[in-house]
Amino acid sequence: MKTMTTDIVVIGGGPGGTPLAMGAAKAGRQVVLVEAGAGLGGTCLFHGCIPSKIFRESAMLRYRLERARRFGIGGVGDRPTVDWATVERRKRTILSGRSDAALAKARTLPSLTVRFGSARFLDPHRIVIEGADGADELRFEKAVIATGSVSRKLNVPGSELPGILSSEELLSVERVPSSMVVIGGGPIGVEMAQIFSLLGTKVTILEALPSILGPVDRSLARRLGEILVRDGIPVHTGVKVERIEAAGDLRRVQYSSGGRTESLEAELVLAVVGRSPNVEGLGLEKTAVQFDAKGVKVDARLKTAEPHIWAAGDVVGQPMFAHWATAQAQALAAHLLDRPAVFPRAEHNSAVIFSHPELGMAGLTEEGARERGWDVEVAEYSYASDARAQIADEAEGLLRIVYRSDNATIVGVHALVEGAADLMGEAALAVATGAKLGDFARAIHPHPTLTESFGICASAALGGRK
Ligand SMILES: Cc1cc2nc3c(=O)[nH]c(=O)nc-3n(C[C@H](O)[C@H](O)[C@H](O)COP(=O)(O)OP(=O)(O)OC[C@H]3O[C@@H](n4cnc5c(N)ncnc54)[C@H](O)[C@@H]3O)c2cc1C
Q: Exposed, middle or buried: residue 340 (CB in 10 Å: 0-12, 13-18, 19+)?
């Protein structure tokens, strides 16, 4: 076994670890980035954000083609077919292209070494890297744990049967299933349910809590729930999945609901019941690093209980988003380089659920702001009358701007409308910079775009004043 030394070792080459390692190496520090998978990109690139949105793009194109006649376009059948092999090939090309590009960029940095293999702590200053070419020992000054998260297992009898998939497995299916039960009505469950429904799968959602999409703006989550049901995706909330069994080629999911036992049969079952920090096999017991089921315990500057070991991204717990992991990583890179570092604040985060219509959020919900003791009001705008939404034949949904009653500072922006994903840039900027309703009202938004909704909504709330 070879023994190497480095200033900084970063464990995990996802949206947390990769920019962190590159940032530190650009400043000339000796950095080793260790990645257990076959390429750089992490869950986001290989099993998360990117493949799911590639599938969504095909699903949305099929949806639009089905409606082509409404736009005066003929020559497209009522049920456009799906060539899954092409969808898969397109996915693989994008994934490998992005991963190769990240690796090529990393290799331009002379003080960065990328090692493929699995890292495990031997003691607080040494790890072993086990790769295809054997094991090496690495002694380091500082370490960053960025090992991400893994799908939480569904813990009911029968959940180990074939055909019970995690989101990672669903993103590698060989064909579009004819039917699917989705257990878990969180963001991933809702996205997958709609994507596969639009691709032709008969989908049902089972959710244990009284409502889907937990921490999302309540009225928008409710509205999206109604849209799911209207569009042919039954949603059963407040249910407890009891067991899963084989029923010929199908899987039968048995669940209790309001004291009754019900069951559903489907070709596949997708179990998306949350994600857990990925700490197994990392040898953290050889260090003083503390963790629990929510994640590795860190302080406000992401330092663990070991003064020379930090952690970032999904492994430290919620919120679990790629852009959040990257924002933490960039701040941590600056901090490790003794430069001024601005660590991201949860109340400034933004996110998108790529449902149809998309649900975007930036900052706090009305409920979240009130929990902080803030006196807030909400300005609303309906996309039913929006020019851009009408042109796209997507004229439904709602914008909700949460602002402080005392000074009209915008603390949250929530939009349910197809296109909300690209609205969230302006929303995130407004929240992060403490913009006021008057700023939205004064900004000259281009017509006809969905961004106009910010100005119209804010002006109406100000009674026409700017
Ligand atoms: C289905 C799905 C859809 C998603 N969609 C979105 C989305 O649209 N937008 C969004 O912002 N987020 C999305 N996410 C979340 C996003 O993928 C994660 O928040 C993000 O990947 C976290 O980045 P990370 O760097 O912390 O961890 P990861 O991306 O998980 O990277 C961790 C890396 O560490 C490596 N690793 C683990 N253990 C070891 C070890 N012992 N040694 C060496 N390497 C190790 C892993 O192989 C992995 O590459 C989605 C997630 C899923 C599952």
A: exposed
Give me the active site residues, please: 447
> Positive or negative CA dihedral for 162, 314, 293, 369?
negative
Do 50 and 137 fall within a single domain? Answer: yes
Do 189 and 266 share a domain, yes or no?
Answer: yes
Structure confidence at residue 77 (pLDDT): 77
**233: Cβ contacts below 8 Å, ≥ 6 apart:** 193, 194, 197, 203, 204, 205
Q: What CATH number is associated with residue 417?
A: 3.30.390.30
pLDDT at 234 over 80: yes
Q: Which domain holds residue 125?
A: 2-150+276-344
Q: Is 159 part of a structural domain of the chain?
A: no
Q: Are residues 26 and 93 in the same domain?
A: yes
Domain count within the chain: 3
- Across the range 425-439, mean pLDDT stands at 98
- Which residue CA neighbors atom 3 of ligand 1 most closely? 48
Q: Do you find a cis peptide bond into 448, omega within 30 degrees of 0?
A: yes
**Confidence (pTM):** 0.97
Nearest-atom number in ligand 1 for the CA of 329 is 25
pLDDT confidence of residue 133: 84
pLDDT higher than threshold 80 for residue 165:
yes
Q: Which atom of ligand 1 is nearest to the CA of 313?
A: 26
Going by the DSSP 8-state scheme, the letter that residue 211 receives in this structure is S
CA distance 401 to 379: 5
- What is the mean pLDDT of the segment spanning 149-154? 96
Number of the ligand 1 atom closest to the C-alpha atom of 44: 17
Stretch 126-137: mean pLDDT, rounded? 95
Q: The tokens 């990257």 sit on which residue? A: 326
Tens of pLDDT, residue by residue over 371-393, are 999 999 999 999 999 999 999 99
C-alpha–C-alpha distance, residues 336 and 338, integer Å: 5
Q: Does the pLDDT at position 464 exceed 80?
A: no
Q: Residues 441-446: what's their mean pLDDT?
A: 98
pLDDT at residue 215, rounded to an integer: 87
Same domain, 300 and 314: yes
Kindly give the pairing relationship between strand 350-353 and strand 359-363: antiparallel
pLDDT at 465 over 80: no
From 20, 44, 168, 291, mutation site for ligand 1 pocket: most ligand atoms within 8 A of C-beta: 44
Which residue's CA lies nearest to atom 51 of ligand 1? 48
Element (H, E) at 253: strand 250-257
Helix axes 187-198, 218-230, angle to 10 degrees: 30
380 and 325 in a common domain:
no
User: What gap in Å lies between CA 25 and CA 105, rounded to an integer?
Assistant: 12
> In terms of C-beta distances under 8 Å and separation of at least 24 residues, what long-range contacts does 305-308 make, across chains too?
306/124, 308/124, 308/125, 308/141, 308/142, 308/143
